[in-house]
C-alpha cells in the first residue's frame, strides 16, 4: 500500500523543539510560562490590529468563553452559521442556550446576510432578541465582513468571529480574527498551524482578554487562599504547547503560500474538467489562506459525483472529505430553528475537500493527478 496522503497534517518548521526544550530546561512545564506569553505576543503582532490575545486549550474553549463574556446564559438564543464544524455550535449548548441556524451564501460559503437579517427580524417578532452571532471563515475564506458587521451594528448583536480555519486570511487587508466583537483561533492538529491542540481568544481590550484568562484559570479571586466568586474553567494553554506554537509562527506565512499553491495546482488540474469548480476568492478584497482546497461538482456535466471521486481517491490511499455537514441536518441539532434556502445542503451534497497540506510533495501531487485523471 502506498503511503497515505492526508487532507491536512501537522508540518513542523524546525524551531518548535528549541522552544519545547527550553520549557523543559527551565522547568516551565505548566499551563503558564514564557512560551505562553511569547506565543500571545507573536499572535498579537501577526494580527497587527490593536488587539489582545489569550492562549487557551482549544478553539472550542475560546468560543465557550466568548459566549460567557457576551453574557449568553440559559434560555438565550444564539445565531450560528449552519455549515461549519460542530465545535462552532456546541458551546451554545454548554450554556443551555438555543442555537438558531442560518444558511450560507454561494460566494464565500459562509453566513448569508439575507437569511441572517430575516432570522433576526423573525426572532425579535417572536419576542426574543438573539444574544450573539457566530460567523465562520470556512476553509479560510473570509465571510462577507462588511454585510455581517453592518447587520451586527444595526441590530446591536455582537459577533463571535470563528477564525479557527482562517489564521492568516484577510479581508480588505485586515486580518481575520480581528473583525468580531470577540475572535477565536484554533491550533488543532489539522489546522494551518498546530500546537498539537490549542486555541486562542482575540479581544479588542486588555480588560476583556484578562477576564477571559481569569475565567480560563479557575476564576481565582485576588486572595492568598483559594477564593471564588465566579464559576471557573481550566482552559489555559500549556507552556509546552505554546512552545510548538512559537516555532510554528516562524513558518506560518511560508505554509500559507504553500497551501495557496495547492489551490493553484487544483485550478490547473480541473481547468479542462467540465462541471468542477475550485473554491476561490470572489474578488481581490478577499485573501484566503486556503487551509483546505475544496471543489464543487456538477455531476451531470462532470459525469461523476463527489462520492465517486472520494472513493476513487480512497482506492489510491488519498484522503478527501465531503464539506461540513450543516448543523441543522445533524441529529443533535435538527430540532432547532433554521433559516435558509438549500445553499448549505447543496454544498454538502456536491462538494469535496482535497489534500491541501503545506507538506505535500511533487510525488503526492502526481499521485493525486493520476487518480483524478483516471476518472475524468
Ligand atoms: C477546528 C474548529 C473549531 C474548534 O477548534 P478546536 O481547537 O479543535 O477546539 C471551531 N470552529 C471551526 C470552524 C473549526 O474548524
From TrEMBL:
The active site is at 191 (proton acceptor). It holds the Pfam family DegT_DnrJ_EryC1. Transmembrane segments: none annotated. The modification N6-(pyridoxal phosphate)lysine is found at residue 191. InterPro entries: DegT/StrS_aminotransferase, PyrdxlP-dep_Trfase, PyrdxlP-dep_Trfase_major, PyrdxlP-dep_Trfase_small. Keywords: Aminotransferase, Pyridoxal phosphate, Transferase. SUPFAM superfamilies: PLP-dependent transferases. GO terms for biological process: polysaccharide biosynthetic process. GO terms for molecular function: pyridoxal phosphate binding; transaminase activity. Belongs to the DegT/DnrJ/EryC1 family. PANTHER family: DTDP-4-AMINO-4,6-DIDEOXYGALACTOSE TRANSAMINASE, TRANSAMINASE. This is Pyridoxal phosphate-dependent aminotransferase.
